[in-house]
Amino acid sequence: MKLTSDLLRQIAAEQGPSFYLLDSARFRQNFTDLTQAFRAHYERTVIAYSYKTNYVPRYVQLVAELGGYAEVVSSMEMALAQKIGVPARKIFFNGPYKEIHATAALLGAGGTVNVDHPLELDRIVALADSHEGAPFRLGLRCNFDVRDGVVSRFGFDVEQPGFRDAIARIDAHPGLELAGLHCHFATRSLDSWRNRTLGMLDVIDRHFRDRLDTLRQISLGGGLYGRMPDELKAQFPVAIPSFAEYAEVASKPFQDYFGARSENKRPELLIEPGTALVADALKYACTVNGLKRVRGRDIVSLTGSSYNMNPNPNRKNVPIEVFATGGGAGGAELTDAFLGGYTCIESDYLYKGYTGRMSPGDMVVFDDVGSYSVVMKPPFILPDVAIVEPHDDGATYSVVKRKETFEDIFRTYSLI
Questions:
Q1: Mean pLDDT value of segment 197-215
Q2: Does position 185 have pLDDT exceeding 70, yes or no?
Q3: Side-chain half-sphere exposure of 286, counting CA atoms within 13 A
Q4: E runs forming strands in 149-281
Q5: CA distance 165 to 159
Q6: Which long-range CB contacts under 8 A does 205-212 form with residues at least 24 apart?
Q7: Is there a contact between 181 and 143 (Cβ–Cβ < 8 Å)?
Q8: Cβ(42)–Cβ(251) under 8 Å?
Q9: DSSP 402
Q10: Where exactly are the structural domains of the chain?
Q11: How many Cα atoms sit within 13 Å of 175 on the Cβ side?
């Protein structure tokens, strides 16, 4: 993405003093490189993009163009996938809560629902009892210990009778097909990926060894780190794996297990990345609103907020670049400055420890903000900002999403 002071100044004049900058080329590259890393070991690997991480339609359209699937956890996300033309067979519905009308619609259209708990299966069985047509395609979400210190709340405990009972119930119903298995663990470490892979293969070996042909897809879920510069990596307590390292511990064991089978007899291996694809494919730009010094600390007031970037209280300092769009008047040399947001929350800092020069009207561009930013931004204090995509010429851009207005926020209320 080519950014200049002139382009940022133009966007700010037309779209407001804060906005997101979407980088579709980076997203494409991440998708391609991650796919190739996994397919180097297991050719039948497919990315099912995690819509919840960032459901900006531009991204999900790119996924569809690149041959990926849709991993959704809500009726809203499922409707988006359908709206952009994703075939039902490429939509996978996960999550602990699914509205029954959406579940019924997707199953009836030939999509896959990964069942999270016994009561959900009860509801689907009731749907199947009155359904005529092709069997509903189901997956089972598997829960086991990946030794990350977390007792996950998602899926069936594979060591309990309820897991075997679920398999038996689906097998016994002519209107249901057990098409795959799924797991979801939040820990992004390499050990987690190694252990979830071995755990899923153990489940397959114990429960499906004699019926491998019936398994269409095996999903290892999401939770991968994306590419990041060294200055960001250094803020994590663990080593950040590369795409190739993830593939080595995940897709290679699948090749070892299924490799002796003919290509058309192997299940697809699904991975459900969000952060790994989109984190560094979105930047956030905002304007220096004011400078001051308070009890020995330099404070910069910005027209943006940390809530525009990521609501996680443990958020790291992402890489930033300062553009001299303010003309230099009233500027200052800052040391260990805190860059504060527009909200009235004391902890609303976008960056801590900046050293360098800034002037009122300058623009600060924050990198690596694509993960859980747009989708988790509340209408707190101000509505959300525009999303734009700069063009390769470095001088023009397209509006991906206009900034929100008073009407957008309050149209669902009854105003007296």
A1: 96
A2: yes
A3: 26
A4: 156-157, 176-182, 217-219, 268-271
A5: 11
A6: 205/257, 207/164, 207/167, 212/258, 212/261, 212/265, 212/267
A7: no
A8: yes
A9: P
A10: 5-21+280-410, 24-277
A11: 14
Q: Which amino acid is located at 233 in the chain? A: K
Residue-wise pLDDT for 360-409, tens only, equals 999 999 999 999 999 999 889 999 999 999 999 989 999 999 999 999 99
- The answer to whether the 5-21+280-410 and 24-277 domains have the same CATH topology is no
- Cα gap 5→132, rounded to integer Å: 61
The pair of structure tokens assigned to 147 is 């030794």
| H helix and E strand count, the chain | 12, 18
Confidence of residue 416 (pLDDT cuts 50, 70, 90): low
Task: Give the pLDDT score at 313.
Answer: 63
CATH topology for 24-277? TIM Barrel (3.20.20)
5-21+280-410, which class in CATH? mainly beta
Q: What is the pTM of this model?
A: 0.95
Report the pLDDT averaged over residues 217-239: 93
